[in-house]
Specification:
By secondary structure, the chain is α/β, with parallel strands linked by helices. It has helices spanning about 5-10, 15-30, 45-60, 70-85, 100-110, 125-135, 155-160, 185-195, 255-265, 275-285, 290-310, 345-355, 380-395; strands at about 35, 95, 115-120, 140-145, 165-170, 200-205, 230-235, 250, 325-330, 335, 340, 360, 360, 370-375. The termini are far apart. The structure holds pyridoxal-5'-phosphate. Pyridoxal-5'-phosphate binds next to helix 5. Pyridoxal-5'-phosphate (PLP) binds near residues 125, 235, 237 and 248.
């Protein structure tokens, strides 16, 4: 019998991927499941990006590249940040990884370890806390409720800072809440970061998915000197419907990029060469496809929120970004459905899946009990039918 390491035993499987697997299991038994658990655009990758990948394959770009990404892709990323945010970064300040998740992990491995603390506003994206724990550092969670639009204030962060604090991990637009920090809110956090002399990992992967008046901010641009303290994370997964291509990146001071690149060169070598070529086409090519997807997401969001707000017992605010609704289901705690009692967000979501065949993710997976997350990255027809089922099922509560 092989013994499993302490590290492996301490890691939980990703809750969102686990929820998707559960739905697949039911589907295999012939059940029609309304799956609102997954965090990926349902659109196909735009054609011109696929064509660029085919061209790359045919022209022989099928070998190892520089471990932290081709110069061509890192140059395209640097051009993109200059154009969109007026952020100056050289290709040496950029590392391309196997998805943004990999960049976050590399950044944490490069910057923190046992004895260090990383501040994470909560609800947080499922992987943050585990990725921090895997380095031996301690996640320090700051709860942020619906009344605060799920956003942390500079004052709350200040209170959580100790001599052990190394990093703040911030995510705007947010998964799971769809919260988007205003420029002014982030400026206050930027001032605190500079004053307290801590680093920031700013996960901006949903930056292009903001609706109405909401605007995404590139945190590193907010103040003079902030670039030296910030690891900016993003990638092509959400913006260009490219989750399976596995291309994400980090922009950081050169010494940090070097440390991350060393780690990456030992653990995975380069991200897929063909995907890197496709990512160049995504960044340099026509951007209309992004606008089309954004418009559709916004219309789905409006539809879903109106519907959720019409269900008795559910509390839900309008999320300005990403493609998630994060709503309060705690009024159903203590209620029974077909003889089974809801005690927390996990049992609520399990019963919703088993009895209504609607797949949501429990708030506790994001560090926030009392809530459920619905991803609206699926067609309006499916959303309408699934939400009708959820509403009918909730009526059966006793
Ligand atoms: C907040 C956040 N950061 C990072 C990622 C990871 O993105 P990637 O697919 O590029 O690894 C996700 C994916 O769900 C996410 O929601």
């Amino acid at each position: 019998m092989l013994g499993i390491s302490k590290l492996a035993l301490s890691v939980q499987p990703s809750a969102t991927l686990a929820a998707g697997a559960k739905a697949r299991q039911l589907r295999a038994q012939g059940v029609k499941v309304f799956d609102f658990s997954l965090g990926e655009p349902d659109f196909p990758t735009p054609e011109h990006i696929c064509q660029a990948a085919i061209a790359a394959m045919k022209s022989g770009q099928t070998h190892y590249t520089i471990a932290h990404g081709t110069v061509e892709l890192r140059t395209a990323i640097s051009r993109w940040y200059k154009k969109v945010y007026n952020l100056d970064c050289t290709p040496d300040q950029i590392i391309v990884s196997n998805g943004a998740k990999h960049s976050i992990h590399n950044a944490l491995l490069a910057l923190v370890g046992p004895g260090d603390e990383v501040i994470i506003p909560t609800p947080f994206w499922v992987s943050y806390s585990d990725l921090v724990s895997m380095t031996g550092a301690t996640p320090v969670l700051i709860p942020c409720g619906m009344e605060a639009d799920f956003k942390v204030s500079a004052a709350q962060i200040k209170k959580a800072i100790t001599p052990k604090t190394k990093l703040l991990l911030i995510n705007s637009p947010s998964n799971p809440t769809g919260a988007v920090y205003t420029h002014a809110e982030l400026e206050a956090i930027a001032d605190l970061v500079l004053e307290a002399n801590i680093g920031v990992i700013s996960d901006e992967i949903y930056e292009q998915l903001v609706y109405g008046d909401a605007k995404a901010t590139c945190f590193a641009t907010l103040r003079e000197g902030l670039k030296a303290k910030t690891i900016t994370i993003s990638g092509v997964s959400k913006t260009y419907a490219m989750t399976g291509w596995r291309i994400g990146w980090a922009i950081a001071p050169e010494a940090v990029v070097k440390a991350m690149a060393n780690i990456q060169s030992q653990e995975t070598s380069n991200p897929c060469s063909v995907s890197q070529a496709a990512a160049i086409a995504a960044l340099d090519g026509p951007q209309e496809c992004v606008g089309v997807m954004r418009k559709e997401f916004e219309s789905r969001r409006d539809f879903v929120i109106k519907k959720l707000q019409g269900i008795p017992g559910i509390k839900c605010k309008v999320p300005p970004g990403a493609f998630y609704a994060f709503f309060d289901v705690s009024s159903y705690f203590g209620k029974s459905f077909a003889g089974k009692t809801v005690t927390d967000s996990a049992s609520f979501c399990l019963l919703a899946l088993e009895q209504a065949h609607v797949n949501l993710v429990q708030g506790s997976a994001f560090g926030a009990e009392g809530y459920a997350r619905l991803s609206y990255a699926t067609s309006k027809e499916v959303l309408e039918a699934g939400l009708d089922k959820l509403q009918d099922w909730l009526k059966t509560a006793v």
